[in-house]
Amino acid sequence: MQPTKKTLEEIDQSQEIENAKKIEAALFIAGRFLSIQELITLTDVNPILLKKIISDLKDKYKSSGIEIIQQESLYKMDVSSQY
């Protein structure tokens, strides 16, 4: 039985959600800036996808009390600067 396109898309979406949760958890628990390499090691997410997910997470938290801060190629989850 051949997987349908919808099934493959659902699998891809499910995997991306799982990867986002791993990255979110790593940033949350670290409490410090993490490099891309550290995030790759902690999450086992490839660098291209990792950068896309970080960008998506920045957008997700844009209007909340939490933000993803970037300094050069280092990333950290922190309380929004307004709080």
Main β-sheet description: 3 strands, antiparallel
Instruction: Order the strands across the largest sheet as they lie in space.
Output: 1-3-2
What is the strand tally? 3
Please tell me how large the radius of gyration is.
Answer: 14 Å
What's a quick, concise take on this entry?
By secondary structure, the chain is α+β, with helices and mostly antiparallel strands. It contains 3 helices and 3 strands.
Explain what this protein looks like in three dimensions.
The protein is an alpha+beta fold and 83 residues long. 59% of the residues lie in helices and 17% in strands. It contains three helices and three strands. It has a three-stranded antiparallel beta sheet. Strand 2 and strand 3 form a beta hairpin. The radius of gyration is 14 Å and the shape is globular. The model has no long low-confidence stretch (mean pLDDT 91).
